[in-house]
Amino acid sequence: MSAVEAKLAELGLTLPEVVPPLAAYQPAVRSGVYVYTAGQLPMVEGKLQLTGKVGAEVTPEEAKDLARICALNALAAVKSVAGDLDRVARVVKVVGFVASASDFTGQPAVLNGASELLGQVLGDKGVHARSAVGVAVLPLDAPVEVEIQVELTEV
To answer: What is the value of pTM for the model shown?
Structure first.
């Protein structure tokens, strides 16, 4: 077990299986020392956890938990191409999309779910730049979608 996966276990989490693509793309691709993930939805064992707009059908607190699931799925996608999460030198960028009710403006707080998880699991390597974007709708009516870019150590 890698040190990162041991930290996940310490937090009561396990790395899930990679979420299969919903269309014509790969869950993650590697280019040089960088891994770019596709947008990850809050899927657990193949099932979307909640649907709807944040600030309407989904509370900001629920959405923050969903962003955490998205980040966990993103780490699984990174591992699928990097081989070992201990190779993560740092998370460079996180981009999060929040399906928002028209008057909802708390996207940054929702995306803290993903950012905080990455920090808890990776420590200083999890500190990153981030964009939190409110959108009208996401695939499958998901409330949140998160993608990450990470830099790997040289092998």
So the answer is: 0.96
